[in-house]
Specification:
The structure is a single chain. Helices cover 0% and strands 38% of the residues. It contains no helices and 10 strands. The structure holds FE2/S2 (inorganic) cluster.
């Protein structure tokens, strides 16, 4: 489990990048928190810098749209899913369950 940020630091419609290997993007989609791999599955773009539309994020480089709930792209040019991670909110802090990856945030 790694610490992403405080809930107050991630208002609805915003995202944050958590550095590490891999880097993880955490989103607040209208009050629901989601975590996915930050690097697009198409090329080397940071999805935390993309545009959030409901439960979807649009890649800032070539506009592939990823479903934050599943990691699946819904349009080209991305064809592969990005990984999703469980998010836990406890005592006003957002944590991402990376399955044992070391925290570097
Ligand atoms: S790098 Fe994301 S769609 Fe191309």
């Amino acid at each position: 489990m790694i610490t992403a940020c405080a809930v107050d630091d991630l208002p609805p419609g915003e995202s944050v990048r958590v550095d590490g290997k891999p880097a993880i993007a955490v989103f607040n989609a209208d009050g629901e928190f989601y975590a996915i791999d930050d690097t697009c599955s198409h090329q080397d773009a940071s999805l935390s810098e993309g545009w959030l539309e409901g439960c979807f994020v649009e890649c800032p480089l070539h506009a592939a749209l990823f479903d934050l709930r599943t990691g699946m792209p819904t349009c080209l040019p991305a064809k592969k899913a990005v990984r999703t991670y469980p998010v836990v909110v406890r005592d006003g802090v957002i944590y991402v369950d990376t399955g044992g990856r070391e925290a570097v945030a």
